[in-house]
Amino acid sequence: MVTLMMSTLLFGYGFLGVFCQVSHMVNSDVDLLALQSQFNPSLNGSNIGIETNFQSLELNSRNNTWKPYGDSNNGHCVWYDIDKNNKYNIFYDGEGKMLEDETSVTKLGEVCPELFVDLRKRADEAGEERIRTCCSPRQIEKMTSDIGMAAAMVNRCPSCFRNMRLNWCYMACDPAQSNYLVPGELIPPSNETDNNTLIKDLDLYVSDAYAVGMYNSCKDVTNPNTNSKAIYLMCMPWSSLCNPYRLLSSFGLSSDNPVTPGFAPFEIHYHFVKDESDRPENIIEFNPELIPCNQAITAEASACSCVDCEASCPVPPPLPPIPLPWKVGRLDGYAFILIIISASFCTTFLVISYYFLITRQRGVPIFHGNGVGFISIRRLAGVGNRVAPEDDDATQILSESDSLNQFVNEPHAVLHHTVSSSSSVTTDDDITFREKLGANLEKFFETVFSSWGEVCARYAIFVLIIGVALSVALSCCVVYVKVTIDPVELWAAPESRSRVEKDYFDSNFAPFFRTEQVIIAAKNLEPFNRTTSDGVVNWYGPVFRKEFMYEVLKLQKKIEKVVGDAGTKLGDICFKPMAPDFDTCAVQSPLGWFQGSEEILNSEFPLATGDVYDYLNHIEYCTTNPTSPSDGNFGSASCMASYGGPVFPYVVLGGFLGEGQITADNAQFMNATAIVITVPVNNFKTEDHDFKATDWEGKFLALMSNWTANEKPEYMEVGYAAERSIKDELDRQSKSDVLTILISYSIMFLYIAFSLGQFRSFSTLLIDSKFTLGIGGIIIVGLSVCTSIGFYGLIGVSSTLIIMEVIPFLVLAVGVDNIFILVQTYQREARRPVESHEQHIGRILGEVGPSMLLSSISETCCFFLGALSDMPAVKAFALYAGLALFFNFCLQITCFVALFSLDTRRQESNRLDILCCFRGAKKDYPKNEGILYRVFDLIYAPFILSNWVKPLIIVGFISWLTASLCVAPHIDVGLDQDISMPTDSYMQNYFKFLTSYLAVGAPVYFVIQDTGLNATAADVQKKICGSAGCDMDSVVTQIYLSAKIANRTYIAAPSSSWLDDFYDWLDYGGDFSGCCFVDDNGDFCPSSQDQIMCTRCEPTYVVNNNKKWPTQESFDKYFEFYLNDNPGMECPKGGHPSYGTAVNRHKLDNKTVIKSSYFQTYHSVMKNSADYYNGMAAARQVADNITTMLNGGNHEGPHHVFPYSVFYVFYEQYLTMWKDVLTSLAISGGAIFIAVLLLLGLDVQSSLITMLVISMIVADLLGAMYWWDISLNAVSLVNLVMAVGISVEFCAHIVRGFAVSCENSRSNRAKETLVKMGSSVLSGITLTKFGGIIVLAFAKSQIFQVFYFRMYLLIVLIGAAHGLIFLPVLLSYLGPKVNRARLKQNFENSSAIERARSSNPL
Question: How many helices (H) and strands (E) does the chain have?
Fold first, then answer.
């Protein structure tokens, strides 16, 4: 999922917020500090964000009187007016001058209301009509403009802006400036200065309390366009490393500063006074009263919002602790309970079992009259009653312990019954309804299958032709099959939440970008350092070596020049956020800080300190100030990339996060060990655009492959990917493993073809061979799969690659098992004297057909009901598998029986296999059961069913089950991306680099759906926005609070906010600049163009809680202008790049209707599947809280908010994976139980035993998945459902064989069944699959290695162990009693056979 790593360049282009400050502060001639500190917040007159009723300041509920700084009688001016070049202030040490100009008075009152109230009081106290100031009308006019622009950065927090502007306003105009301002170097009068003395630098003394308090009130103010702190843009050059002293010091850096150029017209040296020793005599440090950010600046105003002031945030209830598992010591509580229960059962079972065994071996005391005698229980073992054997076998220790007790207590009755009942006859009255039903149903199936077998044997050619013709006809419809390869279509149901939300997002906004990315890491390169002239040692990561940067730059140039085979250029498809102003692709790379220029990269500039300012210093500058348009020490080179936007260091650098860091806050970027180049490509989902994109990506991948192999320096490692990479690699993977799969199936085919035959002697080897029959059986398996695919292709049900890979294995497993049972039963059962060949075939089919029907119908129902799953891939697999198994059964009892009949005729006529025209020598051999049958009969079955071994087997399997149940809940859920790729894929390196180096997570969008929410109304906007005056639980605020606990919410940063930026855009700038302009016709004028022919917009507002809300009329008129405006030097708030697609709107009756919109942030770094689906769950919880707020406290309501990220649709399945697994297994198991129950004549006991063993197989398979590192996901879910189906083959034949057996004890019935059916199951499904599965271990695909080789091997081995070891032993204890109706039928049939033999001795 390459798109997950799309950079966060979309998070806003308010990066240009710094532009306005820069352009105006350089030319500003307002008071030096006022000017340079315009690099901060401000606003002018109508933009000041507070009411201009100056008297309201006196009514502040917390500060009834403004406490002026100092006393005008104790201070004087240090300047007045500016020189003609608007650079230096003119030295003046007299008292303040009367401000006569009414316009200037009004402006000063609007921009500096606190100072104005103070000056007005001083004038009143002095009896003067006019206020006195140290600033001229020219300075006030310029200050009004500059502070108005700076206010756009922080005026969303009134107290921050108020505390900050005190510094600028008082320094600029306070008549008592000399109390805290000390002029430094002066420029003497000359013609160039109009004979004025100019101030070249200045010392400013401020209290430490003011510096800290002002900083604390501003440190949390957010720039909604960039998702960063506004203070970072103001605190040059420290940015994210800002502190109170650096912030104020940055205000004083002049453009002439030899080390760190700033934006003040001349140098201002801030001095921070903690006590009297820190200031000269006669100096009173600037120490105004501050208002914390969580308090309002007037009684009518609002405090700063939670987004901009952490102290304003409501105190949330403590987060519930992460639930910890119940532990007993180091064990999980439930595991401890399981172990106790299991240990208790096993101990009790062993003690009881071996107690009775030992007692029996010693002999049991028998009280006989007045004497005591002993009789060995062993003597009773051979005395059986075939009518009621279950109560007479004294070897059945547990299941028949009642009989033993009866023997001990009533020996006469037991002995009499044992001896005499052998000749007794069961009457119909003794037989229950269930026994009659079971026997009659068995008889019915035997009769039907026998008759059917005779027909197929008699008309073999006709049956073959019809069956093959129908199958081939349906198979031809495979041409209509559509194979689904889109992961979204495979794993997300159309009605699933993630799918619905993805479709909504794509249709209302735009699909997420295609992403091309290169991650280049340093290999065997050490960090290096450099020492400055003052002895400071600076360390740099290895990727900042100049030769490394050169190679990256050359590679980037090659990528930008790639042209596809169809002539597609990068510019044809790339994302250009600043178009049409910048027709350049938004390539994200650290070389963007040099505008992709080698010349700029090589630039060096001497500093006054003797050091050289070079590319490393510029990188340091840009990592802390990524939105800066000019690095004064580096030839005024910009940090902005050539596309006109920023290059954020956390996007283009990697490997710098410290231990435990999950976000890039306060990260040490210069420790980076990797460089990331990201090229976002538009994803319009049109056929033409997709073709162009894939055309270019193909050449891009070819370039990277060649560069990696032939040009990459040895000191580099690279990981790269394109949007098409995963699909390409999956296609390559499928093709590369074709040979492995063919070898696997070939081994299974050869085994089947050769092992079906029976060796009697070398002279008859070619006669007894079943190679042709085996090939025929394999063809039937293939036809059943193709027929199923063709049928669904005909009716339009899409297929998947997993169907092509898994179903042949499944059908081969089931089909081969039935084939072996049929053939080996025939080989063991000699033809009866009166039987014809057709009757013999019919009788054999009648004997095994019900067992084949039982397993096939159970499996078919299992898979068809499995299609109830919501997951498309699982649903399709279940449908195709169910029908394939049904067709396979139909073809087996028709075509295979017919082919088998023809083959046995050949064998009986001594014709050679394959070369059937040739005859061999005729020799008569008795029927031979085969080696495996004899091993089972003479060695294996007697061993595992011996009374000393059976308890150990039960205990062993119960212990195994307990261990599996203990670890199964700890199976990893998910599918990490690297497993889906071949081991030799270039994507392996890319995935490794993603988790090792990337520092930014996937973007996440909180979407407000079109549910009638009128976002143009002020009362609704309060619920959305995040600045002062907005609700404390607004949309933006809740996302902000979530970002404060990123370790729980996986939300890494506050969201961007189109609404807050719209407020700033509409109300931005001073008299000489702004954002909103219209031409003479009232149409939109971009803020970046020459405004000579345009005029400022005149929006109207409704004032509420000191918040100016645009009226409906202004919103309707100007909102579209805002979304079409690009940010620039004059206006950093243009909404086009950031929000052009974020707001889905239209006009209705000339009113703006916002249908839907999103607020974008990004997830924290995610390393594995668990991070992804836990992050999605956390984001959904945040969205649910927002929904509840919008609906007035009710979760259900008309308004709905949901989170969307590109990876959600792939990972949603894991939120309910265990539920899906258990549901699918329960449905499949239920289907098998019902099928077994019905087909065995309501034999509940046999059905429960079947389900018990199948459940144990699945549980032990889950345990093995944990131990063998097989994660739980959609692929393993398909395999688990398949495992249920295959488990039927291991259980159903043996359970049915036991149920119909008429041996005299459970042990003997279990042995008979194990010998007859177990040998066929082992030679059929187990050995057949084992050889083929082993080959899959050599596949290049990790998917094949993990989910096919490992899981298939486990399914076969665990299924065989339970079916051939545990199940017979369990039946010997708990198996159903013999069916007396069946026993009677057998007796009658045997009598009829004996009579027939007597009448036909030949």
Answer: 53, 34
